[in-house]
UniProtKB/TrEMBL annotation:
PROSITE patterns: GLYCOSYL_HYDROL_F1_1, GLYCOSYL_HYDROL_F1_2
Recorded family membership: Belongs to the glycosyl hydrolase 1 family. Klotho subfamily.
Transferase as UniProt keyword: no
Gene Ontology BP term (one): carbohydrate catabolic process
Name of the protein in its database record: Cytosolic beta-glucosidase
Active-site feature positions: 380 (nucleophile)
The keyword Hydrolase belongs to this UniProt entry's keyword annotation: yes
Assigned EC number: 3.2.1.21, 3.2.1.45, 3.2.1.46
InterPro entries (UniProt xref): GH (IPR017853), GH_1_N_CS (IPR033132), Glyco_hydro_1 (IPR001360), Glyco_hydro_1_AS (IPR018120)
Name of encoding gene: Lctl
Record's catalysed reaction(s): beta-D-galactosyl-(1<->1)-sphing-4-enine + H2O = sphing-4-enine + D-galactose; a beta-D-galactosyl-(1<->1')-N-acylsphing-4-enine + H2O = an N-acylsphing-4-enine + D-galactose; a beta-D-xylosyl-(1<->1')-N-acylsphing-4-enine + cholesterol = cholesteryl 3-beta-D-xyloside + an N-acylsphing-4-enine; beta-D-glucosyl-(1<->1)-N-octadecanoylsphing-4-enine + H2O = N-octadecanoylsphing-4-enine + D-glucose
Domain of life, source organism: Eukaryota
Amino acid sequence: SFYYGTFPEGFLWGVGSSAYQTEGAWDKDGKGPSIWDAFTHRKGKVVRNETGDSACDGYYRVKDDIQLLKELRVNHYLLSISWPRIMPTGIKAEQLNEKGIQFYNDTINSLLENNITPIVSLYHWDLPQVLQEKYGGWQNISMINYFNDYANLCFEKFGDRVKHWITFSNPWAVAENGYETGEHAPGLKLGGCGAYKAAHHIIKSHAKVWHSYNNTWRKEQQGMVGISLTSGWGEPVDPHSQTDRDAAERYIQFHLGWFANPIYRGDYPEVMKNYVGRKSAQQGLGTSRLPTFSVQEKTYIKGTSDFLGIGHFTTRYVLQKNFPFLQVSGYDTDRDLAELVDPNWPAPGPKWLYSVPWGFRRLLNFIKTQYGNPLIYVTENGVSEPAQCTQLCDEGRIQYLKGYINEILKALNDGVNVKGYTAWSLLDKFEWNKGFSEKFGLYHIDFKNKNKPRYPKASVDYYKKIISANGFPNPREVENWHRKAMDTCSTTHQHLAADSLITHMETVTEIVLPTVFTLCILICIVLLIFYLRNHA
Protein backbone atom coordinates (compact mmCIF):
# COMPACT_ATOMS: atom_id res chain seq x y z
CA SER A 1 0.00 0.00 0.00
CA PHE A 2 1.12 3.56 -0.66
CA TYR A 3 2.52 5.48 2.31
CA TYR A 4 1.89 9.23 2.57
CA GLY A 5 4.48 11.20 4.51
CA THR A 6 7.63 13.26 4.15
CA PHE A 7 11.35 12.56 4.26
CA PRO A 8 13.54 13.82 7.13
CA GLU A 9 14.71 17.44 6.94
CA GLY A 10 18.00 17.65 5.02
CA PHE A 11 17.29 14.60 2.84
CA LEU A 12 19.20 15.12 -0.43
CA TRP A 13 17.50 14.97 -3.82
CA GLY A 14 19.52 14.69 -7.01
CA VAL A 15 19.98 13.32 -10.49
CA GLY A 16 22.95 11.68 -12.19
CA SER A 17 24.79 10.76 -15.37
CA SER A 18 28.23 9.55 -16.43
CA ALA A 19 31.07 10.95 -18.56
CA TYR A 20 31.18 8.52 -21.49
CA GLN A 21 27.40 8.41 -21.83
CA THR A 22 26.96 12.18 -22.13
CA GLU A 23 30.15 14.17 -22.81
CA GLY A 24 31.04 13.24 -26.39
CA ALA A 25 34.17 15.09 -27.63
CA TRP A 26 35.88 11.68 -27.52
CA ASP A 27 39.15 12.88 -29.09
CA LYS A 28 39.01 16.64 -28.46
CA ASP A 29 41.27 18.93 -26.41
CA GLY A 30 43.89 16.31 -25.61
CA LYS A 31 41.61 13.51 -24.34
CA GLY A 32 43.06 10.02 -24.75
CA PRO A 33 40.99 7.05 -25.98
CA SER A 34 39.06 4.92 -23.47
CA ILE A 35 38.15 1.24 -23.70
CA TRP A 36 34.63 2.35 -24.66
CA ASP A 37 35.97 4.40 -27.58
CA ALA A 38 37.86 1.34 -28.82
CA PHE A 39 34.93 -1.03 -28.16
CA THR A 40 32.24 1.04 -29.91
CA HIS A 41 34.46 1.65 -32.94
CA ARG A 42 34.46 -2.12 -33.59
CA LYS A 43 31.50 -3.20 -35.73
CA GLY A 44 28.85 -5.44 -34.19
CA LYS A 45 29.47 -4.52 -30.54
CA VAL A 46 26.64 -2.00 -30.11
CA VAL A 47 23.05 -1.85 -31.38
CA ARG A 48 23.08 -0.22 -34.85
CA ASN A 49 26.88 0.25 -34.45
CA GLU A 50 26.24 3.48 -32.55
CA THR A 51 29.00 5.18 -30.53
CA GLY A 52 29.34 7.76 -27.78
CA ASP A 53 31.71 9.85 -29.93
CA SER A 54 29.46 12.88 -29.57
CA ALA A 55 26.79 11.43 -27.20
CA CYS A 56 24.79 14.39 -25.76
CA ASP A 57 27.56 16.93 -26.54
CA GLY A 58 27.71 17.45 -22.78
CA TYR A 59 31.33 18.60 -23.05
CA TYR A 60 30.08 21.72 -24.84
CA ARG A 61 26.73 22.08 -23.03
CA VAL A 62 27.69 22.29 -19.34
CA LYS A 63 25.96 25.62 -18.71
CA ASP A 64 22.77 24.49 -20.51
CA ASP A 65 22.62 21.26 -18.52
CA ILE A 66 23.20 23.07 -15.22
CA GLN A 67 20.15 25.19 -16.11
CA LEU A 68 18.18 21.94 -16.34
CA LEU A 69 19.43 20.98 -12.86
CA LYS A 70 18.29 24.38 -11.55
CA GLU A 71 14.93 23.84 -13.21
CA LEU A 72 14.65 20.49 -11.38
CA ARG A 73 15.60 22.16 -8.04
CA VAL A 74 17.92 19.29 -7.09
CA ASN A 75 20.37 19.46 -4.18
CA HIS A 76 23.07 17.41 -5.91
CA TYR A 77 24.32 16.18 -9.26
CA LEU A 78 26.17 12.87 -9.56
CA LEU A 79 28.72 12.99 -12.38
CA SER A 80 31.80 10.96 -13.28
CA ILE A 81 35.27 12.06 -14.32
CA SER A 82 36.70 10.57 -17.50
CA TRP A 83 40.11 9.20 -16.51
CA PRO A 84 41.57 9.51 -20.07
CA ARG A 85 40.29 13.10 -20.34
CA ILE A 86 42.59 14.27 -17.56
CA MET A 87 45.29 11.57 -17.93
CA PRO A 88 45.34 10.50 -21.62
CA THR A 89 47.35 7.27 -21.16
CA GLY A 90 46.10 6.61 -17.62
CA ILE A 91 49.65 6.97 -16.31
CA LYS A 92 50.30 10.11 -14.25
CA ALA A 93 54.05 10.13 -14.89
CA GLU A 94 53.53 10.19 -18.66
CA GLN A 95 51.07 13.01 -19.28
CA LEU A 96 48.41 15.24 -17.73
CA ASN A 97 45.82 17.05 -19.84
CA GLU A 98 45.35 20.53 -18.41
CA LYS A 99 42.34 21.23 -20.68
CA GLY A 100 40.56 18.18 -19.26
CA ILE A 101 41.36 19.25 -15.69
CA GLN A 102 40.06 22.74 -16.50
CA PHE A 103 36.84 21.28 -17.91
CA TYR A 104 36.04 19.51 -14.62
CA ASN A 105 37.14 22.52 -12.57
CA ASP A 106 34.72 24.71 -14.55
CA THR A 107 31.91 22.12 -14.21
CA ILE A 108 32.38 21.79 -10.43
CA ASN A 109 32.58 25.58 -9.99
CA SER A 110 29.42 26.13 -12.06
CA LEU A 111 27.51 23.56 -10.00
CA LEU A 112 28.56 25.17 -6.72
CA GLU A 113 27.74 28.68 -8.00
CA ASN A 114 24.22 27.36 -8.58
CA ASN A 115 24.01 25.77 -5.09
CA ILE A 116 24.22 22.24 -6.48
CA THR A 117 26.48 19.79 -4.63
CA PRO A 118 28.73 17.70 -6.89
CA ILE A 119 28.93 13.99 -6.06
CA VAL A 120 31.81 12.68 -8.15
CA SER A 121 32.50 9.14 -9.32
CA LEU A 122 36.13 8.45 -10.23
CA TYR A 123 35.29 5.48 -12.42
CA HIS A 124 32.17 4.90 -14.48
CA TRP A 125 33.65 2.31 -16.83
CA ASP A 126 35.88 4.41 -19.15
CA LEU A 127 39.35 2.96 -18.48
CA PRO A 128 42.14 4.52 -20.58
CA GLN A 129 42.67 2.25 -23.60
CA VAL A 130 46.46 2.36 -23.16
CA LEU A 131 46.14 0.58 -19.79
CA GLN A 132 44.01 -2.11 -21.42
CA GLU A 133 46.46 -2.64 -24.28
CA LYS A 134 49.63 -2.55 -22.15
CA TYR A 135 48.49 -4.42 -19.06
CA GLY A 136 45.16 -6.13 -19.76
CA GLY A 137 43.15 -3.61 -17.72
CA TRP A 138 41.55 -4.86 -14.50
CA GLN A 139 43.07 -8.32 -15.00
CA ASN A 140 46.39 -6.81 -13.93
CA ILE A 141 47.39 -5.99 -10.36
CA SER A 142 49.29 -2.91 -11.56
CA MET A 143 45.91 -1.16 -12.02
CA ILE A 144 45.79 -0.68 -8.23
CA ASN A 145 48.66 1.82 -8.24
CA TYR A 146 47.65 3.51 -11.50
CA PHE A 147 44.10 4.05 -10.21
CA ASN A 148 45.45 5.35 -6.89
CA ASP A 149 47.65 7.89 -8.73
CA TYR A 150 44.64 9.05 -10.75
CA ALA A 151 42.42 9.31 -7.65
CA ASN A 152 45.05 11.33 -5.79
CA LEU A 153 45.31 13.73 -8.73
CA CYS A 154 41.52 14.23 -8.53
CA PHE A 155 41.68 14.82 -4.76
CA GLU A 156 44.50 17.33 -5.31
CA LYS A 157 42.78 19.23 -8.13
CA PHE A 158 39.11 19.09 -7.06
CA GLY A 159 39.00 17.94 -3.42
CA ASP A 160 38.88 21.46 -1.98
CA ARG A 161 35.33 21.67 -3.43
CA VAL A 162 34.18 18.05 -3.88
CA LYS A 163 33.21 16.44 -0.56
CA HIS A 164 31.49 13.26 -1.81
CA TRP A 165 33.65 10.82 -3.78
CA ILE A 166 32.66 7.46 -5.29
CA THR A 167 35.56 5.20 -6.25
CA PHE A 168 33.68 2.86 -8.60
CA SER A 169 30.17 2.98 -10.07
CA ASN A 170 28.63 -0.48 -10.48
CA PRO A 171 31.85 -2.55 -10.47
CA TRP A 172 29.72 -5.71 -10.88
CA ALA A 173 29.05 -4.71 -14.52
CA VAL A 174 32.73 -3.80 -15.08
CA ALA A 175 33.84 -7.28 -13.97
CA GLU A 176 31.03 -9.51 -15.25
CA ASN A 177 30.11 -7.77 -18.53
CA GLY A 178 33.64 -6.58 -19.36
CA TYR A 179 35.68 -9.69 -18.59
CA GLU A 180 33.30 -12.68 -18.67
CA THR A 181 30.36 -12.18 -21.06
CA GLY A 182 32.19 -9.60 -23.20
CA GLU A 183 28.99 -7.57 -23.69
CA HIS A 184 30.74 -4.43 -22.44
CA ALA A 185 34.18 -2.94 -23.03
CA PRO A 186 36.84 -4.26 -23.22
CA GLY A 187 34.71 -7.13 -24.58
CA LEU A 188 36.75 -10.05 -23.16
CA LYS A 189 35.35 -13.54 -22.56
CA LEU A 190 37.77 -14.95 -20.03
CA GLY A 191 35.89 -18.05 -18.91
CA GLY A 192 35.32 -18.70 -15.23
CA CYS A 193 38.15 -16.52 -13.85
CA GLY A 194 37.99 -13.17 -15.67
CA ALA A 195 35.19 -11.53 -13.70
CA TYR A 196 36.47 -12.73 -10.30
CA LYS A 197 40.02 -11.53 -11.02
CA ALA A 198 38.85 -8.10 -12.24
CA ALA A 199 36.61 -7.69 -9.16
CA HIS A 200 39.47 -8.69 -6.85
CA HIS A 201 41.69 -5.92 -8.24
CA ILE A 202 38.83 -3.40 -8.18
CA ILE A 203 38.13 -4.09 -4.47
CA LYS A 204 41.83 -3.69 -3.63
CA SER A 205 41.97 -0.48 -5.71
CA HIS A 206 38.95 0.91 -3.86
CA ALA A 207 40.56 0.17 -0.48
CA LYS A 208 43.88 1.75 -1.46
CA VAL A 209 42.16 4.95 -2.61
CA TRP A 210 40.10 5.13 0.61
CA HIS A 211 43.29 4.81 2.68
CA SER A 212 45.04 7.43 0.50
CA TYR A 213 42.21 9.87 1.16
CA ASN A 214 42.09 8.97 4.84
CA ASN A 215 45.84 9.43 5.37
CA THR A 216 46.58 12.38 3.07
CA TRP A 217 43.46 14.42 2.33
CA ARG A 218 40.71 13.86 4.89
CA LYS A 219 42.01 16.17 7.61
CA GLU A 220 42.34 19.10 5.22
CA GLN A 221 39.37 18.47 2.89
CA GLN A 222 36.83 16.92 5.32
CA GLY A 223 35.15 14.83 2.61
CA MET A 224 33.80 11.29 2.31
CA VAL A 225 34.78 8.36 0.08
CA GLY A 226 32.42 5.50 -0.74
CA ILE A 227 31.59 3.04 -3.50
CA SER A 228 28.41 2.68 -5.59
CA LEU A 229 27.12 -0.88 -5.92
CA THR A 230 24.20 -1.75 -8.19
CA SER A 231 22.08 -4.76 -7.30
CA GLY A 232 18.67 -6.20 -8.01
CA TRP A 233 16.60 -7.84 -5.29
CA GLY A 234 16.12 -11.63 -5.35
CA GLU A 235 12.85 -12.93 -3.90
CA PRO A 236 12.37 -16.71 -3.36
CA VAL A 237 9.72 -18.20 -5.68
CA ASP A 238 8.41 -20.20 -2.73
CA PRO A 239 9.11 -18.37 0.54
CA HIS A 240 8.33 -21.60 2.45
CA SER A 241 11.01 -23.55 0.56
CA GLN A 242 14.44 -23.52 2.24
CA THR A 243 16.17 -24.27 -1.10
CA ASP A 244 14.45 -21.27 -2.77
CA ARG A 245 15.28 -19.04 0.20
CA ASP A 246 18.91 -20.15 -0.01
CA ALA A 247 18.94 -19.52 -3.79
CA ALA A 248 17.57 -15.99 -3.27
CA GLU A 249 20.25 -15.37 -0.65
CA ARG A 250 22.92 -16.54 -3.14
CA TYR A 251 21.49 -14.20 -5.78
CA ILE A 252 22.11 -11.21 -3.49
CA GLN A 253 25.46 -12.42 -2.15
CA PHE A 254 26.87 -13.09 -5.64
CA HIS A 255 25.65 -9.64 -6.74
CA LEU A 256 25.84 -7.13 -3.89
CA GLY A 257 27.80 -9.22 -1.37
CA TRP A 258 30.62 -9.88 -3.86
CA PHE A 259 31.78 -6.27 -3.31
CA ALA A 260 30.00 -5.15 -0.11
CA ASN A 261 31.04 -8.10 2.05
CA PRO A 262 34.82 -7.53 1.79
CA ILE A 263 34.32 -3.79 2.50
CA TYR A 264 31.93 -4.19 5.44
CA ARG A 265 32.83 -7.64 6.80
CA GLY A 266 36.38 -8.27 5.61
CA ASP A 267 36.00 -11.09 3.07
CA TYR A 268 33.92 -12.54 0.25
CA PRO A 269 30.56 -14.04 1.32
CA GLU A 270 30.95 -17.59 2.69
CA VAL A 271 28.38 -18.91 0.20
CA MET A 272 30.43 -17.50 -2.72
CA LYS A 273 33.63 -19.06 -1.42
CA ASN A 274 31.89 -22.41 -0.91
CA TYR A 275 30.12 -22.58 -4.26
CA VAL A 276 32.98 -21.31 -6.46
CA GLY A 277 35.46 -23.44 -4.49
CA ARG A 278 33.38 -26.59 -4.90
CA LYS A 279 32.81 -26.04 -8.63
CA SER A 280 36.53 -25.32 -9.13
CA ALA A 281 37.41 -28.60 -7.38
CA GLN A 282 34.92 -30.49 -9.61
CA GLN A 283 36.78 -29.05 -12.63
CA GLY A 284 40.01 -30.50 -11.25
CA LEU A 285 41.52 -27.09 -10.44
CA GLY A 286 44.03 -26.97 -7.60
CA THR A 287 42.71 -23.64 -6.28
CA SER A 288 39.39 -21.82 -6.39
CA ARG A 289 38.64 -19.56 -9.33
CA LEU A 290 37.58 -16.99 -6.70
CA PRO A 291 40.82 -15.36 -5.49
CA THR A 292 41.55 -15.10 -1.76
CA PHE A 293 42.52 -12.15 0.44
CA SER A 294 45.42 -12.50 2.86
CA VAL A 295 44.81 -11.76 6.55
CA GLN A 296 46.50 -8.36 6.13
CA GLU A 297 44.39 -7.56 3.04
CA LYS A 298 41.15 -8.42 4.85
CA THR A 299 42.03 -6.00 7.65
CA TYR A 300 43.12 -3.36 5.15
CA ILE A 301 39.88 -3.60 3.11
CA LYS A 302 37.37 -3.87 5.96
CA GLY A 303 35.78 -0.54 6.87
CA THR A 304 36.92 1.35 3.76
CA SER A 305 33.65 3.15 3.04
CA ASP A 306 32.29 6.34 4.58
CA PHE A 307 28.97 5.68 2.83
CA LEU A 308 27.46 3.04 0.57
CA GLY A 309 26.08 4.15 -2.78
CA ILE A 310 23.26 1.90 -3.97
CA GLY A 311 22.02 1.57 -7.53
CA HIS A 312 18.81 -0.41 -7.93
CA PHE A 313 16.50 -0.95 -10.89
CA THR A 314 14.48 -4.15 -10.62
CA THR A 315 13.70 -7.48 -8.89
CA ARG A 316 13.70 -11.17 -9.85
CA TYR A 317 12.04 -14.25 -8.42
CA VAL A 318 14.73 -16.83 -7.71
CA LEU A 319 14.69 -20.60 -7.33
CA GLN A 320 17.25 -23.38 -6.96
CA LYS A 321 18.62 -24.79 -10.23
CA ASN A 322 21.47 -27.29 -10.28
CA PHE A 323 23.77 -26.91 -13.25
CA PRO A 324 25.35 -30.18 -14.39
CA PHE A 325 29.10 -30.53 -13.99
CA LEU A 326 30.71 -28.36 -16.66
CA GLN A 327 34.35 -28.35 -17.69
CA VAL A 328 34.00 -24.62 -18.24
CA SER A 329 32.11 -23.06 -15.35
CA GLY A 330 31.45 -19.37 -14.87
CA TYR A 331 29.75 -16.76 -12.72
CA ASP A 332 26.23 -17.65 -13.90
CA THR A 333 26.54 -21.41 -13.40
CA ASP A 334 28.48 -21.02 -10.12
CA ARG A 335 25.35 -19.69 -8.42
CA ASP A 336 23.09 -22.72 -9.04
CA LEU A 337 19.94 -20.65 -9.47
CA ALA A 338 17.37 -19.55 -12.03
CA GLU A 339 15.74 -16.12 -12.32
CA LEU A 340 12.06 -15.61 -13.14
CA VAL A 341 9.75 -12.63 -13.54
CA ASP A 342 6.04 -12.17 -12.92
CA PRO A 343 4.40 -11.44 -16.32
CA ASN A 344 2.04 -9.06 -14.49
CA TRP A 345 4.88 -6.77 -13.40
CA PRO A 346 4.83 -3.53 -15.42
CA ALA A 347 7.72 -3.13 -17.87
CA PRO A 348 7.61 0.47 -19.12
CA GLY A 349 10.78 0.05 -21.17
CA PRO A 350 13.07 -2.88 -22.00
CA LYS A 351 12.06 -6.37 -20.95
CA TRP A 352 14.85 -6.68 -18.37
CA LEU A 353 13.60 -3.73 -16.34
CA TYR A 354 10.35 -4.57 -14.59
CA SER A 355 8.86 -2.11 -12.11
CA VAL A 356 8.77 -3.94 -8.75
CA PRO A 357 8.99 -1.20 -6.08
CA TRP A 358 8.60 -3.49 -3.04
CA GLY A 359 11.94 -5.16 -3.87
CA PHE A 360 13.76 -1.91 -3.10
CA ARG A 361 12.58 -1.75 0.51
CA ARG A 362 13.65 -5.36 1.02
CA LEU A 363 17.09 -4.69 -0.48
CA LEU A 364 17.60 -1.65 1.78
CA ASN A 365 16.58 -3.66 4.85
CA PHE A 366 18.95 -6.46 3.82
CA ILE A 367 21.82 -3.92 3.72
CA LYS A 368 20.82 -2.59 7.14
CA THR A 369 20.91 -6.08 8.65
CA GLN A 370 23.97 -7.44 6.83
CA TYR A 371 26.32 -4.48 6.99
CA GLY A 372 25.53 -2.73 10.28
CA ASN A 373 23.10 -0.11 8.93
CA PRO A 374 25.64 1.98 6.97
CA LEU A 375 24.99 5.51 5.69
CA ILE A 376 23.34 5.01 2.27
CA TYR A 377 22.97 7.31 -0.73
CA VAL A 378 20.81 5.95 -3.54
CA THR A 379 23.08 6.64 -6.52
CA GLU A 380 21.09 5.21 -9.45
CA ASN A 381 17.38 4.48 -9.77
CA GLY A 382 15.27 4.93 -12.86
CA VAL A 383 13.59 3.33 -15.84
CA SER A 384 13.92 3.61 -19.61
CA GLU A 385 11.51 3.71 -22.48
CA PRO A 386 12.24 2.33 -25.96
CA ALA A 387 13.83 4.75 -28.45
CA GLN A 388 11.11 4.29 -31.05
CA CYS A 389 8.64 6.18 -28.84
CA THR A 390 9.20 9.82 -28.11
CA GLN A 391 7.31 9.73 -24.82
CA LEU A 392 7.38 13.18 -23.30
CA CYS A 393 4.27 12.16 -21.36
CA ASP A 394 6.23 9.37 -19.63
CA GLU A 395 3.50 7.91 -17.45
CA GLY A 396 5.54 4.73 -16.87
CA ARG A 397 8.49 6.69 -15.43
CA ILE A 398 6.21 8.75 -13.16
CA GLN A 399 4.66 5.59 -11.70
CA TYR A 400 8.11 4.00 -11.35
CA LEU A 401 9.62 6.98 -9.51
CA LYS A 402 6.55 7.37 -7.31
CA GLY A 403 6.63 3.68 -6.32
CA TYR A 404 10.39 3.34 -5.75
CA ILE A 405 10.81 6.63 -3.86
CA ASN A 406 7.86 5.66 -1.66
CA GLU A 407 9.59 2.37 -0.76
CA ILE A 408 12.63 4.39 0.41
CA LEU A 409 10.30 6.36 2.68
CA LYS A 410 9.00 3.08 4.13
CA ALA A 411 12.59 1.84 4.57
CA LEU A 412 13.43 5.02 6.50
CA ASN A 413 10.58 4.19 8.86
CA ASP A 414 12.14 0.70 9.22
CA GLY A 415 15.27 2.45 10.51
CA VAL A 416 17.39 2.22 7.33
CA ASN A 417 19.96 5.05 7.22
CA VAL A 418 19.24 6.54 3.75
CA LYS A 419 20.35 10.15 3.37
CA GLY A 420 19.81 10.90 -0.33
CA TYR A 421 18.24 9.83 -3.61
CA THR A 422 19.60 10.16 -7.16
CA ALA A 423 17.21 9.70 -10.09
CA TRP A 424 18.85 8.07 -13.11
CA SER A 425 19.28 9.95 -15.32
CA LEU A 426 19.23 13.64 -16.22
CA LEU A 427 19.30 13.10 -20.01
CA ASP A 428 18.54 10.49 -22.63
CA LYS A 429 22.07 9.27 -23.40
CA PHE A 430 24.29 6.54 -24.83
CA GLU A 431 23.30 3.27 -23.10
CA TRP A 432 26.45 1.21 -23.54
CA ASN A 433 25.96 -1.87 -25.77
CA LYS A 434 22.31 -0.80 -26.30
CA GLY A 435 23.43 2.45 -27.98
CA PHE A 436 20.63 5.01 -28.08
CA SER A 437 17.90 2.34 -28.18
CA GLU A 438 16.94 2.89 -24.50
CA LYS A 439 16.08 6.26 -22.95
CA PHE A 440 16.58 6.76 -19.22
CA GLY A 441 16.43 10.57 -19.24
CA LEU A 442 14.09 12.91 -17.42
CA TYR A 443 14.91 15.15 -20.41
CA HIS A 444 14.43 13.97 -23.99
CA ILE A 445 17.14 14.80 -26.54
CA ASP A 446 16.35 15.12 -30.23
CA PHE A 447 19.48 13.38 -31.55
CA LYS A 448 18.38 13.98 -35.16
CA ASN A 449 18.84 17.70 -34.61
CA LYS A 450 22.54 18.70 -34.80
CA ASN A 451 22.01 21.08 -31.84
CA LYS A 452 20.67 18.19 -29.69
CA PRO A 453 18.01 20.28 -27.93
CA ARG A 454 16.68 19.09 -24.53
CA TYR A 455 12.96 18.78 -23.78
CA PRO A 456 11.48 18.11 -20.32
CA LYS A 457 9.34 15.00 -19.99
CA ALA A 458 6.35 14.92 -17.64
CA SER A 459 8.53 13.20 -15.03
CA VAL A 460 10.56 16.44 -14.65
CA ASP A 461 7.49 18.26 -13.37
CA TYR A 462 6.50 15.32 -11.15
CA TYR A 463 9.98 14.79 -9.63
CA LYS A 464 10.25 18.54 -9.02
CA LYS A 465 7.04 18.38 -6.96
CA ILE A 466 8.36 15.45 -4.88
CA ILE A 467 11.53 17.46 -4.17
CA SER A 468 9.61 20.63 -3.23
CA ALA A 469 7.28 18.71 -0.89
CA ASN A 470 10.17 16.50 0.39
CA GLY A 471 7.95 13.46 -0.11
CA PHE A 472 4.26 12.69 -0.54
CA PRO A 473 2.14 14.97 1.72
CA ASN A 474 -1.40 13.70 0.99
CA PRO A 475 -3.38 11.82 -1.70
CA ARG A 476 -5.11 14.90 -3.10
CA GLU A 477 -1.89 16.86 -3.64
CA VAL A 478 -0.03 13.90 -5.15
CA GLU A 479 -2.90 13.27 -7.59
CA ASN A 480 -2.78 16.96 -8.53
CA TRP A 481 0.94 16.67 -9.39
CA HIS A 482 0.16 13.89 -11.84
CA ARG A 483 -2.53 15.88 -13.61
CA LYS A 484 -0.36 19.00 -13.92
CA ALA A 485 2.64 16.99 -15.18
CA MET A 486 0.50 15.50 -17.94
CA ASP A 487 -0.85 18.92 -18.94
CA THR A 488 2.67 20.36 -19.13
CA CYS A 489 4.03 17.54 -21.28
CA SER A 490 1.24 17.96 -23.86
CA THR A 491 2.39 21.55 -24.45
CA THR A 492 6.07 20.47 -24.65
CA HIS A 493 5.08 17.79 -27.17
CA GLN A 494 3.68 20.50 -29.45
CA HIS A 495 6.98 22.43 -29.22
CA LEU A 496 8.92 19.26 -30.03
CA ALA A 497 6.69 18.52 -33.03
CA ALA A 498 7.13 22.08 -34.33
CA ASP A 499 10.91 21.96 -33.79
CA SER A 500 11.13 18.57 -35.52
CA LEU A 501 9.29 19.99 -38.53
CA ILE A 502 11.70 22.94 -38.66
CA THR A 503 14.68 20.54 -38.39
CA HIS A 504 13.19 18.47 -41.23
CA MET A 505 12.75 21.59 -43.36
CA GLU A 506 16.32 22.68 -42.59
CA THR A 507 17.55 19.25 -43.69
CA VAL A 508 15.57 19.59 -46.89
CA THR A 509 17.01 23.08 -47.42
CA GLU A 510 20.57 21.95 -46.68
CA ILE A 511 20.54 18.75 -48.76
CA VAL A 512 17.74 18.81 -51.34
CA LEU A 513 18.01 22.42 -52.58
CA PRO A 514 21.76 22.31 -53.33
CA THR A 515 21.20 18.98 -55.13
CA VAL A 516 18.35 20.42 -57.25
CA PHE A 517 20.40 23.55 -57.97
CA THR A 518 23.38 21.42 -59.10
CA LEU A 519 21.13 19.33 -61.34
CA CYS A 520 19.64 22.48 -62.91
CA ILE A 521 23.13 23.78 -63.71
CA LEU A 522 24.13 20.43 -65.27
CA ILE A 523 20.94 20.35 -67.39
CA CYS A 524 21.59 23.93 -68.55
CA ILE A 525 25.17 23.01 -69.51
CA VAL A 526 23.97 19.95 -71.47
CA LEU A 527 21.30 22.03 -73.27
CA LEU A 528 23.86 24.73 -74.05
CA ILE A 529 26.23 22.13 -75.55
CA PHE A 530 23.39 20.77 -77.77
CA TYR A 531 22.46 24.30 -78.83
CA LEU A 532 26.04 25.21 -79.77
CA ARG A 533 26.54 21.94 -81.70
CA ASN A 534 23.36 22.48 -83.74
CA HIS A 535 24.41 25.99 -84.62
CA ALA A 536 27.93 24.89 -85.55
